[in-house]
Write a structure and sequence with these properties.
Length: 477
C-alpha cells in the first residue's frame, strides 16, 4: 500500500471495514487532495461495486441526468451486476443495484464506493431521495455493507449528507475530511518519489503550492524548486497554468462570485470583515456573500477569527497557499515564462515569501504549539492590528497565540535564508508592540515574545528580548 501520511484516516476506514454492522461514511475535501487515491489504494482488491460520477463540466448534449444514470448502469455491468433492463431514473437504478447485490451476497463485507457524488445530483433528478431510499431500505437492514461516498464539492457534502435534515438525517455513521499534507508529509512524499530536497526547499514549495498531493506530483527529479515551479505553473502549457479557474469551476456553480470574494479577501494581509469584502467588490448589496464565505471556509480556502477586543466582528483571512501565490503573480497574466528563475531574489518574491510563510505558520499551529510545549493548552490564534484613537492602524502583530493559562505568545514571523538578526530599531518596535498589547489584555496576562523563523534568531545584544524561538525545522514535527 503506497499511501503517504493519512494514518488516522486509514485506521478509521479499516475499523469501519471490520465493523459488525453496516456503515455509511462520507469522505470529502478540496479538489486534488487525494480522496479517490486513498480509497482506491486502501480497498483496491475489496470493491464489490465502484462508480465515479461524470463531470458536469464535460457534458455538452444537455441531458446530464440521462448520461449519469447510463454511466451508473455501465459500472454495474463492469462489476458483473448488470440488470436485465436499463434504468430510467435514480430510484430504478438504485433498486437494480440492490437486487444485483442481493444475488451475490454471501455474508462477506461488501464495499460500495461512489465517487464524485455531488456531480450525480443534477437538477430535478431526485438523486438524494433515491440514495436515501437505498441506504434506509436496504443497506441499513443488513450488517455487512460499507458504503463510502466521496466528493470534492465540500459544501454539497456538508449540507446534503453530513448536516442533512431530510431522510438522511443522522444516517451517516462517520465522515472523514481529508486535509492537505503537512510539511512533514510533503517531505515523506518527496522522499517516496526519490526527490532530494532540503527542508528550506520543501517549505518554499509549500508556500507556493500548499500540501496538495496532485500539485506536488508534478515535481521532477533533478530540477530546482524554481525550475519546477516554472515548469508546472508559469511556462507555456504548464499543467497548473489555468488551475485557479479550474479549481473554482469544479467546486461551485457560479465560480466567478467565489473568485471575486477570494480576490477581495486577499487584498488585506490580516483579512477582511464581511462589509469590507462587499466594499472592495464594489457591490451595493451583500446578497449571497454569507453563503459564499461559508463555502470558502468549508473548502479550506479561508479561516475566520474574531479580532481581540471585539464581540461581534468577524474577519476572514486567505490561508490557501496556491490562491495566494496565483493572485500575487498570475492574475491578469502578469507573470512571464521562467518567472520564478528570473525573479528568484527580486523584492516582489521576497515580499511574497514573508506573507506566504505567515500562512505556513497558520497552517501548522499544532506543530508550533508542540514546539512551544503547549500542545495541551487550549488557545486561539489570530493576527492583530492595533488602531490609534483616530482609527489609523498603529501596529500589526503577525500572530497571537492566546492561551487559556493567561499567557499570550506575541509571534513575529520571519522567512530568511539565515539566522534572523534583531537590530535596535526593530527591538524598539517589538517593545512598543508589547506595551500596546498589554494595554488591551487583562491585568493578570503575560506576553511572551516568540520568534518563528527559518533558522532561528542570531545572538546579539538585542536577542535577549526573545522568550521563545520556533524554527522552520520545528514545523516538520
Amino acid at each position: 500500500m503506497n499511501i503517504i501520511g493519512r494514518k488516522n484516516e486509514i485506521k478509521n476506514l479499516e475499523d469501519l471495514y471490520k465493523s459488525n454492522r453496516s456503515e455509511f461514511v462520507a469522505v470529502y475535501g478540496r479538489r486534488r487532495i487525494g480522496k479517490t487515491y486513498l480509497i482506491r489504494e486502501l480497498f483496491k482488491n475489496r470493491f464489490t461495486f465502484y462508480h465515479t460520477g461524470l463531470s458536469p463540466f464535460d457534458q455538452y448534449d444537455g441531458n446530464l441526468m440521462h448520461n449519469q444514470i447510463k454511466a451508473f448502469y455501465n459500472s454495474m455491468a463492469h462489476y458483473g451486476l448488470e440488470p436485465e433492463e436499463k434504468p430510467m431514473n435514480w430510484l430504478e437504478a438504485f433498486f437494480m443495484l440492490e437486487r444485483a447485490l442481493t444475488k451475490i451476497d454471501e455474508g462477506q463485507r461488501m464495499v460500495i464506493f461512489i465517487d464524485e457524488l455531488p456531480w450525480m445530483d443534477t437538477p430535478k433528478s431526485l438523486f438524494i431521495m433515491a440514495l436515501e431510499h437505498f441506504w434506509n431500505s436496504w443497506c441499513n437492514y443488513r450488517d455487512n455493507v460499507l458504503l463510502i461516498v466521496c466528493g470534492s464539492a465540500t459544501s454539497w457534502m456538508v449540507h446534503n449528507l453530513i448536516n442533512n435534515v431530510g431522510g438522511l438525517y443522522g444516517r451517516l455513521t462517520d465522515h472523514i475530511k481529508l486535509a492537505p499534507f503537512t510539511l512533514s508529509e510533503c517531505e515523506e512524499f518527496f522522499k517516496s518519489k526519490g526527490i532530494t530536497m532540503s527542508k528550506y526547499e520543501i517549505t518554499e514549495t509549500y508556500m507556493a503550492l500548499g500540501g496538495i498531493p496532485m500539485y506536488l506530483e508534478q515535481f521532477k527529479k533533478g530540477l530546482s524548486v524554481a525550475q519546477n515551479l516554472d515548469k508546472i505553473i508559469f511556462n507555456k502549457n504548464a499543467k497548473l497554468n489555468q488551475e485557479f479557474k479550474r479549481l473554482f469551476g469544479s467546486l461551485f456553480i457560479n465560480p466567478e462570485a467565489y473568485e471575486n470574494v477570494i480576490k477581495a479577501i486577499a487584498k488585506k494581509r490580516s483579512g477582511c470583515t464581511r462589509n469590507e469584502i462587499i466594499e472592495t467588490m464594489g457591490t451595493s448589496t451583500g446578497g449571497g456573500i454569507s453563503k459564499i464565505i461559508e463555502a470558502l471556509q468549508e473548502n479550506d480556502f479561508i479561516i475566520s477569527y474574531k479580532p481581540y477586543g471585539t464581540k461581534k466582528t468577524v474577519k476572514y483571512k486567505l490561508t490557501d497557499p496556491f490562491c495566494l501565490m496565483w493572485l500575487q503573480f498570475m492574475q491578469d497574466g502578469k507573470a512571464k515564462e521562467n518567472f520564478w528563475e528570473s525573479n528568484y531574489n527580486s523584492p516582489a518574491l521576497n515580499t511574497w515569501r514573508g506573507i506566504a510563510y505567515e500562512n505556513v505558520c497558520f497552517n501548522h499551529i499544532n506543530e508550533i504549539k508542540e514546539a512551544l510545549g503547549i500542545k495541551g493548552i487550549l488557545s486561539t490564534e489570530q493576527p492583530l492590528i492595533i488602531y490609534d484613537e483616530d482609527g489609523k492602524a498603529e501596529t500589526q502583530i503577525d500572530m497571537l497565540i492566546m492561551r487559556n493559562d493567561n499567557v499570550t505568545n506575541l509571534c513575529e514571523i520571519k522567512f530568511c535564508n539565515d539566522e534572523y538578526s534583531i537590530e535596535e530599531l526593530y527591538w524598539r518596535k517589538i517593545n512598543g508592540r508589547t506595551e500596546k498589547l498589554l494595554e488591551k489584555l487583562s491585568k493578570k496576562a503575560s506576553v511572551y515574545i516568540t520568534f518563528i523563523t527559518t533558522f532561528g534568531v542570531k545572538r546579539n545584544m538585542y536577542s535577549g528580548i526573545v522568550q521563545n524561538s520556533v524554527t522552520m525545522e520545528d514545523l516538520f514535527l
